[in-house]
Amino acid sequence: MEAFQLLCRGGARFDKQRFKENLALFDSKKTASHRAEKSVSENAELPTELDFFKYAKGGSGKRKAVEIEDEELETEVQRKPELDHDSNDNAPEKKRQRVTTKGSDVPPPIVSFNDLQERFNLPKRLLSNLSSNNYVNPTGIQAHAVPILLEGRDLAAISPTGTGKTLSYLLPVMSSLGVPMSNSKHDGSDGVRAVILAPTRELAHQIHNECLKLAEGRKWRIVLFSKATAATLAVKSVRDKIDIIISTPLRLVASLQDGKLVLNNVRHLVLDEADRLLDSEFISQTEEVIAACTHPELQKCVFSATLPAGAEKIAMSLLMDPIRVVVGLKDTPLPLIVQSLRYVADESSKLPTLLTYLSQPYNPPILVFTSTQPRASSLAEQLILNSVPNVDCLHAGMTKKEREDAVSRMRKGESWVMISTEVMARGMDFKGIRGVINYDFPTSVQSYVHRIGRTGRAGREGLAITYFTNEDASYLKAIANVLSQSGSTVPEWMLKLPKPSKLKRRQMGKVNRGDAVSKAGNIGRSLAIKRKDMVAGSKRRKAKDKDE
DNA sequence: AAAAAAC
Predict the structure, then answer these.
(1) According to the model, what pLDDT value does residue A96 have?
(2) What number of other Cβ atoms are within 10 A of residue A389's Cβ?
C-alpha cells in the first residue's frame, strides 16, 4: 500500500505548464476532445454492426440546441407552477427542465429567496448566509421544495444531479428548528431534532460542510456522526444540545442498538439519495432509524435524482400525505452533459483505449468509474506505471484517512484522473469535474445517471464517455435509451437492440418506468419485497447479536 | 443480479 502511495505521489506531480497548454488549447478548440476520442477508434477493429461512429457523425447535434440557463429554468418554473399530472409521458424533445408536482394543497413555489422572509419569516441570518455563500436565485427544486417543507409537509423530491437538492432540505430544516438547542430558550424538549441520512461517508461529510455554511454566526450543534462523535453523544447532557445529526444509516443503527442514542425528539428526517437508502441492502438499516424517530410531529422527506418504481412505492408508504415534485424527466441526466458510448471490443482493449485518451489533450479533472475496488486500485496503478500524471484513487476499501485525503486532493484540483467505484457515484459535488469515463459499464440506469451526474453540475458543461464491450451488449439498449431521452444522438441500431429479458429489465430498473406512480396494483408485490427485506434485516441483526 | 457501501 505504501509503495502504491509513493508511486502515486511520484506520478502525481503537478505539471503546471502542461496544464496551461491544455487549457489554452481547449479554450480555442472546444471540439478537440471529440476528435481525440475519434482518433482512438482507429486502433480498434469494429464489427460493422457495432461501429458507433459510423452512425454518430457530428456526435451530439441534437443536444446543441439545448442551452439551459438558470434564468430560463426559473421562468419556466414561474409559468408552470402547479401542473398536476405526471410528466413521464411528455415528449423527450421538451427542451427545458420543467417541474411537475402532485399531492394535496401544494404550496406555490418561491421566486426568490427573499420571498421566504415574508411568507415564512425565515431567520435573517439564514438569508444573509445564503447570499454570502453565493446562493442568489433558487433552482427549480429549491423554489418548490423549500416552501413545501416549511409548511411542514412530507415530500418526495426528484431532481437531476447538480441542481441543488442539499440546500432544498437544509434551508427549511434549519429555519424550522428556529433557535439552536444551545440557546437558553430551550429547556422543554430535549434531544436531537433533525437527522439527515446519506449512503456514503463522503456524502455525509459534504452535507455537513454545506450545513455549516448556513449555520455561520449562530451556535448550532451540527454533528457529522462517526465513531468518535458517537462516543461523546453517549452523554445525555451533550446529546440533548444537538440540533442536527448527519450520518450514514449503519452508524446510527449501531448507536441505537447500543442504547447510546435516542431519536425520540427528532422532528425532521431527510433521506438523501433515497432510492439508494431504500434499496435491499440499506433498507433494514434505514427502517430502523425511521422507527426510532417516534416523535408525533416528525416530518419526513426523500430526495434523489432517480427513484425507480419500487423505491418510490416504499418512499410513498413512509410519507404522510406527501407531495411529489419532479424536475425534468425522472431517471434522466441533465441535457448539458455530452454523452457518448464507446465500443472497446473486450476487456483487454479498455486500458489501451483509456491510455490513448489520456495521452491526448483532455479537460481535467476527470472521474473514471470501475466496477470493483480491486479494479479501481489496479487501474490506478496501471495508469501511474504508464506515466499518466496526477492519478488518484478512491474506494471504500481504503482507510478513512486515505479516503479523506483523496477527496481533499480532488477538491483542491490536484487530481486530474480520479479512479473510483460506486462510492463516488452519488451526491458528490466536485464543481470542476469536466468529464466522466465509465471504464466499466454501469449495472443500472440509476447508476449511469448518478455517475455521469458528477459532471455538468450547476449549469456547467460536462462530458461523459461510457466504454462497452461485447459482454455489455444486453444492457446497452437501456443506457442508449437514456442517452436518447436526454437529447444525445444514439445510433439507431442500439435503440433497436432486442429487449432484454424481463429479469434483465428489472435489473436495469426499467420495469414500470412509464407508469411509475402505482396506478396498477403492484402494492402487494412491494409489500412482499419489504417484508422479505425486513426478515433479512432481522436475521442479520440476530446473527450480529449472536456474535456479540 | 451483483458490487459497493454501511459498522
Answers:
(1) 58
(2) 17
Please state, in angstroms and rounded to a whole number, the distance separating the CA atoms of residues A521 and A238.
48
SS3 A174: helix
Segments of chain A assigned to CATH 3.40.50.300: 2-66+334-507, 70-181+190-327
Largest CA distance in chain A: 74
- A362 falls in which pLDDT band (50, 70, 90)? very high
C1' of B2 to CA of A472 (Å): 14
CA dist A535 and A530 (Å) reads: 9
Task: Compute the residue count for chain A.
Answer: 548
Q: Of A246, A248, A252, which Cα lies nearest the Cα of A214?
A: A246
Q: Which of A102, A165, A164, A161 is nearest to A486 (CA)?
A: A161
Task: Measure CA to C1' and name the residue nearest B1.
Answer: A507
Distances in Å between the Cα of A166 and the Cα atoms of A114, A248, A304, A414, A505 are 19, 15, 10, 25, 31
> How far is it, in rounded angstroms, from Cα A164 to Cα A70?
12
CATH architecture for segment(s) A70-181+190-327: 3-Layer(aba) Sandwich (3.40)
Q: A169-203 pLDDT, tens per residue?
A: 999 999 999 888 777 666 556 889 999 999 999 99
Whose C1' is closest to the CA of A443: which nucleotide?
B2
What one-character-per-residue DSSP string does A27-56 give? HH-TTHHHHHHHHHHTTSPPPGGG-HHHH-
Q: What is the pTM (predicted TM-score) of this model?
A: 0.77
For residues A424 and A451, give the distance between their C-alpha atoms in angstroms, rounded to a whole number: 8
Distance CA A233, CA A246 (A): 13
Q: Across the strands, what pairs with A194?
A: A244, A268
**Which whole number is the average pLDDT over A131-152?**
96
- The count of C-alpha atoms lying within 13 angstroms of the C-alpha of A104, restricted to the half-sphere facing its C-beta, is 5
Residue A52: Cβ-neighbour burial (10 angstroms; 0-12, 13-18, 19+): middle
CA of A377 to C1' of B5 (A): 17
Instruction: Residues A2-66+334-507: name the CATH superfamily.
Output: P-loop containing nucleotide triphosphate hydrolases (3.40.50.300)
Q: What's the CA–C1' distance between A266 and B5, in Å?
A: 25
For A291, list phi and psi in degrees, rounded to 5.
-65, -30
Q: Which nucleotides of B are covered by protein (CB under 7 A)?
A: 1-7
Residue A30: other Cβ atoms inside 10 A: 10
How many Å from the CA of A228 to C1' of B1? 36
